[in-house]
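We emphasize that the prediction below concerns an isolated chain of 549 residues; any contacts that depend on oligomerization or on bound cofactors are therefore not represented. The input was used exactly as deposited, without trimming of termini.
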Amino acid sequence: MNIFIRTDASVEIGTGHVMRCLTLAKDLKMKGARVTFICRKLTGNLLNYIEEQGFEVNSLPQPNESNFKIDSMIKHSHWLKVYWKIDMNQTKNILKKEPQIDWLIVDHYAIDKKWEREMRPLVRKIMVIDDLADRFHDCDLLLDQNIQLDKRYDKFVPKTSLKLLGPKYALLRQEFRDARKQLRFRDGNIKCILIFFGGSDSTNETIKTLEAIKLLDKKNIKVDVVVGSTNKNKEQIKLFCEDLPNTIFHCQIDYIAQLMLKADLSIGAGGSSTWERCYLGLPTLTIETANNQAEIISILDNIGVISHLGKSHDVRTEDIVEKLEYLLNNSDDLKRISNSSLCVMGDESIENVVVQYILGGNMSKLQKYTLQDMKEDNLELVLKWRNSKTIRSSMYTDHIITMTEHKEWFKKLANDDSTIVKIFLSESKPLGLVNISKIDKKNNKCYWGFYIGEQDAPLGSGTIMGILALEFIFEKLGIRKICSEILEYNNASLRYHKKLGFIEEGRFVKHLIKNDQYIDVILMAHFSEKWADGKKDLLLIGGIDHDRN
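Result of the prediction step, given as a token string:
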């Protein structure tokens, strides 16, 4: 697979866009894809660093105009340092040399649908990585790893675009995934502080924070200071660190996850490092260093995930000292922030979701599976499945069904508009059955039942059957609500329903007699408005596994 990435780094832009694209590029490369970068030679670029990471870079010329035309419709259009049509034509000239490009990935606040549309004839699909939701895009896939407001991108991307929204889709390097397995309990005491304001730190918050550390004068606290190679003040910062006790200077490193694990508190900006810190439960004092950080910082501060000090031009050295002194005497606050950080990321960040989608992922497995109307030819096989001990034990009625009863049931289906029965097949081999019953058109709801009948069904068949069934019910039939009733001891079915996105609504207490005992029946339901996100997760997040139910 041939993939190109259009992104930039500069003193003004920072390094975060390139760094997260490198994370994605490395994952794609590990899966066998060829990944090539397209970047402009801006002051503070990372072209050499990208090449050092093992990727080819096509460089766009260094801008030679100081008063170039900007696009008044795009807030950050000046980041390109050339008019968008010039950037578009230069990029097209690179792409035209390739016989086939499967994906073009764009991570740039200065690019919108006008630029993207021009690339359509040259690439099969387009992915956009964004944080702002402030311009229109022409893309097949959009990724925004920030905490989302409902329907934030609905008007900005085509209806056919897949949107991966929220911190669980954060692009995290392997070092963070590995570090997550080594998480330690943070007791709220500050013994080690990490200072990192991104690769370039254009507002020089690092020096301001080091001055605060000096004023704090706590010689028992260790301090790690991290800067990028593009930080224009890195030599001054290095000298400052050398004069402070227990302070270590780090430049352009690949082990920051380990420093985050070791730290009890971080002081930094609100860029892409936010999710790395949250993923490792690291409490953070933030200073806003760019306007595009404002929204996410405000949300995280309000829900207690960070402690925000303010905008860079408003935050004084004394403000940092005052907050540090407060936290040194209020360990419970730090413990709370740490727990909130972990919670906002979920139990685990979802690994390689974007990679799975780009490379086809689990969706490609669906192509050989189908649902077809049950036919008379299926009667004997279905009766065999239905009478098996495993399946009978999970049913309301568990007696051995005769062929006469079975044929009578099938005959009634022809005149029953409230029931649809489908056979689940892998290629041409029947594997199981889906029964959609009690279809209520007035209230737009139905019930369902299902089973995998073949014991040698491929791994993951149960989940695939569920996806196809819910897709048919919600998308083809237009049903609003699917109801299900599960015997209380059927734990496998309960797990299966939860995995598909069903929620528990209640139970019928001591509702049925089984093995001479009255048992509860658990009521579960799924809703059409929840299906789009649920389907996306099932397709992309390793949902297809060992389920046979």
